């Protein structure tokens, strides 16, 4: 598989007096900048992330060598997730070494597994430059020390089809650099010789792009730069006007902040940066978390909220998450001074994300926009690029959102929490916002949408349930409302003599991720004490009841009692009528599959193969999975905690399932009906749709649920 040597027609090797090189690769570990330093023999490139191309030159082995380092893309993300700024810089790299580069060095670290997603990302990003780029590309492997006694050919062969495809696409041209051994000049001279051989193979030509295209890109860039300057001046003037009203009079001694955003936006990290310490757990949470501290002489309250899926509309967000978003404003009474809409600058921002942000913020009412500041995270990825430049280059979706927030925005570098000025400047912008609102804050009692109750009135009414038929009850374990002091006993006493019914409880606990489980509890109809709880938290967390969650759940139960569904097993297999709920209509269009099963000593496993995107229902368990694309899901029964069972003197009410996404992407999980035994000793089925639970895509997330 070794690359063969190429020579001039006379048989002599070509020795160029000048070489022009462009470095391409992913960010965060490929080693592009280090490779540039090794080639030039000095610390020419800063190892920090940059959003612009950087050009450096030097004499190497008797040649004038020009090296262009480009901003990297995310290793396993498609090109549409890469910010427009980065994509344009990759294109413009060609114009920085006229008349064009002799080679592109595609930098890949040997310290990481190379996957199909990585290969696809490389293909999409290099194709930005046009298809002929491959004939000018050499794969440059870094971290050569990781090979040990293994040859690079053995590594390529053993790594899999993805890496083999890439090397073959580049004409089997590759080289290894060991940055830890820069004193070995032969590794650099051999690389330069391979570049010269490639140039001979290309008949002495360098890579060229159409002049018209480069000129068009340059005009576009200058236009965006001018607009960025205009935005900067407009914001500066706006802030000066606000300061004239403030003077020295408005320096709030107390600030109340709510963080909103998608799941991966960096809300919790932003909260930690603002408070100056690790107050928020960086794992995904399903409830609001409130923390306080003194910052720059002020008492600052920060409320972190559960996030939504960044490119999905509000209809796909679980009801519990939407209620937590609404509830967040009431956790810092009388209301927050500002809402931070947290957005990452290191990934592309599309129209779908704008729509999702708009829908979720307006759960708090249209008036929330006058209290909102866009807070950009991962500011280190901008390098020397201004945030105004990023906003203009990213496109209309982000520009619209910033304008909707009154052109109020700020950038945080969560990796540089020691820089106190970025936080004090942010607090000053909050002062200016409050001044622009005439000292007003966002009042949840007045401003939240009608129909979304923070504490519904049904919570204080005792339900009147019939004695016959199936009944179900849901309850949250490990809630986060200690101030309510509510234990649910009044509600349970209202249920009365439904004691004969066995109640199946399926509840959303913490958000589903690969480090957390969906906690499930079983409650007796005679008491509010748990019969059994799997993966429960500490005693204190179990004692914290959730008033808003319980009220939401009871409303669902009251609704089901008005229109009870007690069809038998055979009737359940038939299609739902036109009067079914939206969730039932969703379940009616699924593809029903029989999974592969295997039975062990203590558990039964089911494996469901989904051949395409869509809804798939397991014919054995009733679980329904919304697949984003082709994939595979594994779910199996899990043993109850015997010690916990013995300590409570109870027996399990049903099987406990563990669910894992092995391949592909599960967007949503529909929990099936609860099957219970009524007082008349007949089997009934109760359909309770408690919203959709998101299963984190690509992370092989696991959940546990009582069916």
UniProtKB/TrEMBL annotation:
| A GO term, aspect molecular function | GTP binding
Give the superkingdom in one word: Eukaryota
Q: Name one Pfam family in it.
A: AIG1
Q: Where the protein is mainly located, per its record?
A: cytoplasm
Q: Which UniProt keywords apply?
A: Cytoplasm, GTP-binding, Nucleotide-binding
Regions of compositional bias (Polar residues) in chain numbering: 516-529
According to the UniProt record, one GO cellular component term is: cytosol
Q: What are the AIG1-type G domain coordinates in residue numbering?
A: 17-216, 252-451
| Domain FIIND, chain residue ranges per copy | 586-707
Provide the residue span(s) of the region labelled Disordered. Answer: 516-544, 565-584
| Localization per Swiss-Prot or TrEMBL | Cytoplasm, Cytosol
Give the compositionally biased regions (Low complexity).
Answer: 566-584
Give the family this protein belongs to, as stated in its UniProt record. Answer: Belongs to the TRAFAC class TrmE-Era-EngA-EngB-Septin-like GTPase superfamily. AIG1/Toc34/Toc159-like paraseptin GTPase family. IAN subfamily.
Q: What is this protein called?
A: AIG1-type G domain-containing protein
Q: What species was this sequence derived from?
A: Oncorhynchus mykiss (Rainbow trout)
């Amino acid at each position: 598989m070794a690359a063969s040597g190429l020579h001039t027609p006379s048989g002599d090797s070509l020795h160029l007096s000048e070489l022009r090189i462009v470095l391409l690769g992913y960010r965060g570990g490929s080693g592009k900048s280090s490779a540039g330093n090794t080639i030039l023999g000095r610390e020419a490139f800063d190892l920090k992330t940059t959003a612009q191309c950087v050009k450096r030159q030097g004499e190497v082995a008797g040649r004038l060598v020009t090296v262009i380092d480009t901003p990297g893309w995310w290793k396993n993300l498609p090109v549409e997730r890469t910010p427009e700024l980065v994509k344009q810089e990759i294109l413009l790299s060609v114009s920085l070494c006229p008349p064009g580069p002799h080679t592109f060095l595609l930098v890949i670290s040997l310290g990481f597994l190379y996957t199909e997603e990585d290969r696809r990302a490389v293909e999409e990003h290099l194709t930005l430059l046009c298809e002929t780029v491959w004939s000018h590309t050499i794969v440059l492997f870094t971290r050569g020390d990781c090979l040990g006694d293994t040859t690079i050919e053995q590594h390529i062969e053993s790594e899999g089809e993805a890496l083999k495809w890439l090397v073959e696409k580049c004409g089997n041209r590759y080289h290894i650099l060991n940055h830890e051994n820069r004193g070995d000049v032969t590794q650099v001279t051999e690389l330069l010789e391979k570049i010269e051989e490639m140039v001979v193979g290309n008949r002495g030509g360098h890579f060229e792009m159409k002049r018209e295209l480069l000129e068009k890109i340059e005009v576009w860039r200058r236009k965006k730069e001018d607009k960025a300057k205009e935005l900067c001046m407009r914001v500066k003037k706006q802030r000066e006007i606000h300061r004239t009203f403030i003077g020295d009079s408005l320096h709030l001694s107390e600030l109340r902040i709510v963080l909103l955003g998608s799941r991966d936006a960096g809300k919790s990290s932003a909260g930690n940066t603002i408070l100056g310490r690790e107050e928020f757990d960086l794992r995904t949470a399903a409830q609001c978390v409130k923390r306080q501290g003194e910052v720059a002489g002020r008492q600052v309250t920060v409320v972190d909220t559960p996030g939504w899926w960044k490119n999905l509309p509000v209809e796909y967000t679980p009801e519990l998450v939407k209620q937590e978003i609404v509830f967040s404003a009431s956790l810092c009474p009388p209301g927050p001074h500002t809402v931070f809409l947290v957005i990452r600058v290191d990934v592309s921002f599309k129209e779908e994300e704008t729509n999702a942000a708009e829908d979720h913020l307006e759960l708090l009412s249209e008036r929330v926009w006058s209290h909102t500041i866009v807070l950009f995270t991962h500011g280190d990825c901008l390098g020397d690029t201004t945030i105004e430049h990023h906003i203009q280059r990213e496109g209309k979706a982000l520009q619209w959102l910033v304008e909707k927030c009154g052109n109020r925005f700020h950038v945080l570098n969560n990796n540089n929490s020691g820089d106190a000025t970025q936080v004090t400047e942010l607090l000053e912008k909050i002062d200016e916002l409050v001044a622009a609102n005439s000292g007003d804050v966002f009042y949840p009692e007045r401003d939240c949408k009608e129909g979304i109750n923070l504490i519904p009135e049904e919570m204080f009414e005792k339900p009147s349930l019939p004695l016959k038929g199936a009944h179900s009850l849901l309850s949250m374990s490990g809630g986060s409302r200690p101030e309510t002091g509510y234990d649910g006993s009044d509600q349970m006493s209202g249920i009365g003599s439904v004691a004969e019914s066995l109640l199946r409880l399926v509840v959303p606990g913490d958000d589903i991720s690969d480090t957390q489980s969906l906690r499930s509890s079983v409650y007796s109809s005679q008491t509010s004490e748990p019969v059994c709880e799997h993966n429960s938290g500490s005693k204190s967390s179990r004692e914290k009841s959730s008033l808003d969650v319980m009220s939401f759940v009871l409303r669902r139960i009251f609704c089901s009692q008005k229109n009870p569904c007690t069809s038998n097993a055979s009737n359940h297999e038939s299609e739902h009528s036109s009067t079914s709920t939206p969730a039932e209509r969703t379940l009616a269009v699924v593809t029903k599959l029989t999974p592969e099963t295997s039975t062990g000593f203590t558990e039964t496993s089911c494996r469901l193969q989904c051949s395409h995107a869509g809804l798939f229902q397991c014919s054995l368990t009733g679980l329904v999975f919304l697949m984003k694309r082709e994939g595979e899901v594994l779910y199996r029964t899990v043993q109850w905690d015997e010690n916990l069972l013995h300590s409570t003197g109870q027996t399990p009410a049903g099987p406990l399932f563990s669910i894992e996404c092995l391949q592909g992407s599960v967007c949503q999980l529909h929990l099936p009906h609860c099957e219970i035994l009524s007082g008349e000793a007949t089997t009934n089925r109760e359909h309770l749709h408690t919203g959709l639970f998101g299963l984190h895509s690509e992370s092989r997330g696991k959940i546990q649920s009582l069916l």
